[in-house]
Specification:
With about 270 residues, the protein is α/β, with parallel strands linked by helices. The chain has a single domain, classed as Uracil-DNA glycosylase-like domain (Uracil-DNA Glycosylase, subunit E). About 35% of the residues lie in helices and about 10% in strands. It is built from nine helices and seven strands, in the order αββααβααβαβααβαβ. The chain has a five-stranded mixed beta sheet with strand order 1-3-2-4-5, with helices on both faces. The protein has a two-stranded antiparallel sheet with strand order 6-7. Strand 4, helix 6 and strand 5 form a beta-alpha-beta unit. The chain is globular, with a radius of gyration of 18 Å. The chain binds uracil. Uracil (URA) binds next to helix 3.
């Protein structure tokens, strides 16, 4: 038998996904609305104890229709594993659509129309699960959490909260001139502090001794995305170690319109 994510057919999620905001709320010059909204990954059956807020979907997510399945997702799945959380999580992003251009993410961090729909998701998730901890990945997700908590209409939540560096922090820091090794050390130090704090608040699915990160994430820190998190029938290489989706194009328009999907060589039948 193959496990799969049954999707959004039941209440309260059916109504939520049926009513998603489009280009009137997410300006197409700043968000890749043409790839459609990508809502979540993880449990929608009331069993989530950890609620995670990511940033925005990228190429892999546009294909699988679930968030945080590429390198960022696989790195963070390893963090959940160290916390003893193998299944009892649910992840949403700050933005339903992929951010286009560097400034757009920051420019819309406090956008009230974008927040309104996102708050419906957050309210629904804390109302229909017994969430013990919320974890935000990166600065925009942190703003998202605090915007939600400071809205007097938000559902009550008094569990733990951890704001951690985004899983791709070392890569973006290196791209803007920081030493990659130093950035990795900052990430693992930051994640280790959060793991230590959260392990006091989160009931694990599987009790494991707290095993902290070393100075850098290695390939063994990339956990596999569980089959149960993706829609039925997606091939296993979509959860594999290697990247398999990339935006390609000779100019910015073509690149925005194209995601090249290639089966990793060692995953091909022959
Ligand atoms: N993919 C996502 O869905 N979210 C992130 O924050 C990063 C990559």
């Amino acid at each position: 038998m193959h496990a799969f994510d049954p999707g959004y057919a039941h209440a309260p999620y059916a109504a939520l996904v049926g009513d998603y905001p489009g280009p009137e709320t997410y300006p197409p010059r700043e968000f890749r609305v043409e790839w459609g909204p990508i809502f979540h990954r993880g449990r929608l059956d009331g069993s989530a104890r950890v609620l995670v807020i990511g940033q925005d979907p990228a190429g892999h997510e546009a294909i699988t229709r679930r968030i945080l399945v590429g390198t960022a997702g696989r790195r963070f799945q390893g963090f959940l594993h160290r916390l003893g959380i193998d299944t009892s999580y649910v992840l949403i992003n700050t933005y339903l659509y992929s951010v286009y251009g560097q400034q757009a993410g920051n420019a819309h961090a406090k956008d009230r129309d974008i927040a309104r729909y996102r708050h419906r998701w957050l309210d629904t998730l804390v109302t229909h699960n017994e969430i013990e901890a919320v974890i935000s990945l990166g600065g925009l997700a942190n703003t998202c959490f605090h915007t939600w908590r400071s809205d007097p209409h938000s559902a009550p939540y008094d569990g733990a909260y951890a704001h951690i560096l985004h899983p791709t922090f070392p890569d973006s820091a290196a791209a803007s001139g920081t030493d990659f090794k130093a950035a990795m050390r900052r990430l693992t130090t930051n994640w280790n502090s959060a793991l230590t704090a959260l392990s006091a608040d989160v009931t694990p699915d599987v009790q494991r001794p707290l095993d902290l990160y070393g100075e850098a994430l290695t390939s063994s820190d990339l956990a596999v995305i569980p089959e149960a998190d993706l829609p039925a029938g997606l091939p296993s290489w979509m959860r594999s170690d290697e990247p398999w989706a990339a935006r390609k194009g000779a100019n910015s328009q073509e690149k925005r319109a194209t995601i090249e999907v290639r089966i990793p060589e060692d995953e091909r039948p022959f």
